[in-house]
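Why do we care about 3D structure at all? Because function follows from shape, and shape follows, mostly, from sequence. That is the central idea of this module. The next example makes it concrete: a single protein chain, its amino acid sequence, and then its structure expressed as tokens.
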Amino acid sequence: MPSIQYKLISEPDDSTEYTLSALYRRAHDSMRNIDGLQPQEAFDELLKFLFFKQANEDKGPKLFFPREGSPLSKTEIKKLADEVRKVFSGYIETFNSWFRQLWKDQRFQLSDTALVTLCQLFKDIHFSKVSFDIRSAALKEFLSPEMRRGLGVYLTPDDVVKMMVEFVNPTIEQSVYDPACGSGTFLIETLKHCRANKKAQRISVWGTDKNPRMLLLAELNMGHFPEITFNRRVTDALFPEGEDTWPAADSFDVIFTNPPFGMMLDSASFDLRRFQTSRNTDGRQVNRQPSEIVFIEQSLHYLKPGGVLAIVLPKSVVTNSTFQSARRALDKQGYIYAAMILPPETFATTGTQASTVALFIRKYGLNEDKKGKIQIALTNVTNVGYDSTGRARKQNQLLKLAEDLRSCIESKSSIGVCRALPEISREETFSELGNLLAGRTGARDAARLGDVVEKAANGRTPPRLSYTDEGLFVVKVGNLTGNGINWIPRERNFISDIEKKKRQASKQLMLQKGDILLTAAAHSPVYIAKKVDIVDCVPEWVGGAASYVGEVMMIRPNRKVIDPFILLAFLRMPATTERIQMMIRGQTAHLYASDLLSLPLPSALLDPDERMRKAAEILRRETEINFEMNQLAFEQQQILGSIEL
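And the structure:
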């Protein structure tokens, strides 16, 4: 089991993450200015130098360099650079083979001047005295979001990592592993957590990554930490190679990981036969499976019986119907005991607005009762301390979430933003979590949306060439306001007569009085069902008839069963919006009519009390006023457009 052990260093260093990050920037800029390197090339050379610097502190020989700005002749610069190159090459030979894999030529690709400049810049930095948290923070500060994306470095946000580690609460005696450790974010937080709870013990962590550069980042972050053993390997944790004894089945107490998303494993290129999650309902192997699905099963494989997996995943893993057979396979291997839904802005710095969820999973213990009952603790986080642009937000919900989530599990009641879902058996947690989120479980005789509507359908977006300056009006997302439909035509609001005839043949694509419209597709899930409006009348000045596009869903209430305005009031409630957003499927946000029809309805809708009737009357009046406002806006537009100055 390869490892690096570091000596205890007690003397503190007064370096901060900001001064160290500033040095990284100066070094990066110096290489670009002196040798004209591209950002990626300069970053790779900086990694080489940081490896050299740390190894030189440990192994020697100690090389002397004059301070920055000291005048040096060309002969002196060459002599110093040659010494560094010789020592660096020796380190590559004596360290693990993956360094040789990363730097095959075992050389700096820098001029003598650039290399000596780096040595002078870092002359007074002693990494053996710089704590791992300062080093890791400095590297994050240095790596801007743009640089990270260019280098393929995707960091899980600190507060998410801290919350997950704090909630799982690993002890110093437990073995903690990250199969896709990247720069070591989860492992670093584990070290901080264990050190805070028990300082005097040696701490060991395990990490693998198939990218040597990522693993080097982890090592540079954790190197020289007092009493640390960092066990590491360059390998694909899904398909490990070599004769090493780890990672192996039933080896670890805790696994933290945020595996790569969106990589499709093809059976022609990857051996999927041993993964139960890669079989369909009749047991046959599927041809393709997303890597994140297989990652759950492989992580459970590495855990000891009773071990815990805390993993960040796309929300689609929980909600998409295409993964149901995979979820049933996972039901046989472990169970979910807590879940944290994260808002889209969580990973905005990586350039994605994907919906994500953190699952906390326990592998079945030996002889554990799989049919035993459990209530999954759920938290739907809406504030992670910043918005989609990265600007700070107050009241970050992650800061005390671990404590609340633990209390929710113990009390089986709502605490803060945490709540206990309805009770189910352990062997159903994977297959039923999506239904629990959407409220599709409970008494079978409970009323559902499908019981009170005639139709619910997603619209259809016309072909681009079908748009005209006049014809059939199509309601788009921009026409919905949440306070009434805006009927003032804008760009591409009309379609041709040919397209109109096609839509008239399908009654569900032509809007009727009383139809309710809501947003059903968007680049971010926070916009789904945020705008809900009712069709009371289609103005004659847009043709008296209208259809709607694919990003909009139509709900046609059964007037014999429910007042459309009562249903509108219910659909506009914040709690209902949250419940609908739990039904979203896919990496991008999509709501499907078949899912929405299963939405549970409170009895107050079918037998409305005075408050519901009052809400309906207010919405009815709002709709009338909205129509008048549309009429005034249209008349104003006509008059002002006819005036010649």
